[in-house]
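Students often ask why we bother encoding 3D structure as a string. The short answer is that it lets us treat folding as translation between two languages. Here is a chain of 302 residues written in the first language.
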Amino acid sequence: MLTIRLVEEKVAVIYHTDAVKSPVHLSIGQEAPSVAVCAALEKNDMVIGTYRGHALYLAREGDLDAMVAELYGKSEGCGRGKAGSMHLGDKSIGMPHTSAIVATGMPNAIGVAFAQKFKKENAITACFIGDGAVDEGAVSESMNFAGLKKLPLLIIVENNQFAIHSPISTRMPRPNFVERAAAFNVAGASVMDNDLDSMLSTSQAAIDHVRSGQGPFLLEIATYRWKEHVGPGDDWALGYRTKEDASPWFENDPLKLCGERIAADRRLALESKVKEQITRAFDRAEKGTFPDPAEMWDNVYA
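And here it is in the second language, the structure alphabet:
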């Protein structure tokens, strides 16, 4: 969580320089769901995420240097500079891609999970979506197929309360994600207290359910993004939310509360180590090379 937070804070500082070559959707404030779920996954499991994917990539132990280089559009990046912030992926960590189109990760995850079951692999697929994606038909259609075929699929709804600037109350009669899943024979649970221990234990139970062959599972985790929907700034002036609304989330920050449980000297040593790694990653990205235009169509399949 610390690595994710400090990397994104660094991105927010340099973003105005145009060093980062694509829009960024920061996970500051909502690092914990990705970390909790990935802590319970196995190495051979697969993960698919959204355009707000820095947290998932790093929680899945993706290479920090490669991610920062990708943000810079450099050939040393995990997508050789073609993917950018919104389409991070790395086959070596079981993360095919993230998607900039809302809800499109779900049909892709269905395909991966179906293949895992067909090949009788002891692996599952974890698909991260936001609460806004649940408005899309692709999510309902995917849950229907997953429930019908009892696919090894874990659906994580990172409920950060808003679809861009639209609160749930203006989009849904009730935010009953788990009830909706049950209609498709998809089990479910919610973690609404922003507590890291709750996320860890519930994630493990959900993954055990899926891995044991009992079928798909939807895990809703309430969270909150601190920054604007896209970009590094604050957006309180837009009027769709207030600092007072956000205050409980600031106070109950899982990163802060987790840090307080670590001895001060160890915490400072960890912070120093992470800051060194981040400084190195950004220095390397600055010195990296842009890909040759001749490779524009390499590894492009559609």
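Translate back mentally: The chain is about 40% helix and 10% strand. Keep this in mind for the problem set.
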